[in-house]
Amino acid sequence: MKKLLPIILCAAIVFSVSGCVSRGPQLTSLSADNVPKADSVKTDDYKDNLDGLEDYLKKRAFLPDMDGTEMSYDMIGAKAGHRYMFTFNGSSVTAEFYEYDLKNLNSEAKTTIESVKKNGNFELLGMTTEATLSDNGKYLMVYTDNSGEELNTTRKSDVLKAFKEYKK
Fold first, then answer.
1. Average pLDDT score over residue span 85-100
2. For the chain, where are the alpha helices, taking DSSP H only?
3. N or C end of the chain, less CB within 10 A?
4. Is the pLDDT of residue 30 over 80?
């Protein structure tokens, strides 16, 4: 009986804790409804840094109103990086954003930026990733939505345009 009691208590703890554990990533869903007009959201209202860019895209309803997951940004020479995962029109979307210090680029940063300028992608750990640079060259975005739906394609185009023009 003395040995059975600790086993029962351990089992009770395991079952009570397992109810608190998430069953995988919960994706926030974005909608095409109620998207503010581009001219109603001014880039001047946001700081010229990664947080400002993300806040701007959230205000434009291109990103969910949540914190992004910090990425291993130093692998591509960036000074900061975040990833957002959400759904749009029933499709899983991943959007990654990176900020560079253009006055202090290391060799990884130079290689990544030059590859994106030349090829529209960069290579990391043997994988080629499509990416876009902002017009000012300070930010890099990786946006993945593999849906072939017209609404998703239009949305991706709108996000790319807003991203590229940020702090021109």
1. 96
2. 4-18, 50-59, 107-119, 150-165
3. N
4. no
The burial class, CB within 10 Å (0-12 / 13-18 / 19+), for 65 is exposed
Helix (H), strand (E) at residue 41? none
Tokens for 68? 């992004």
Q: What is the pTM of this model?
A: 0.81
CA distances from 141 to 14, 21, 72, 112, 134 (A): 41, 31, 14, 12, 8
Q: Tell me how far CA of residue 18 lies from CA of 5, 8, 23, 24, 150, in angstroms.
A: 20, 15, 10, 13, 41
Residue 119: the pLDDT is 97
Name the residue with tokens 């759904």.
Answer: 87
Question: Token pair for residue 56?
Answer: 């701007």
Burial class (CB in 10 A: 0-12, 13-18, 19+), 56: buried
pLDDT in tens, 112-139: 999 999 999 999 999 999 999 999 999 9
Token output for 89: 């029109």
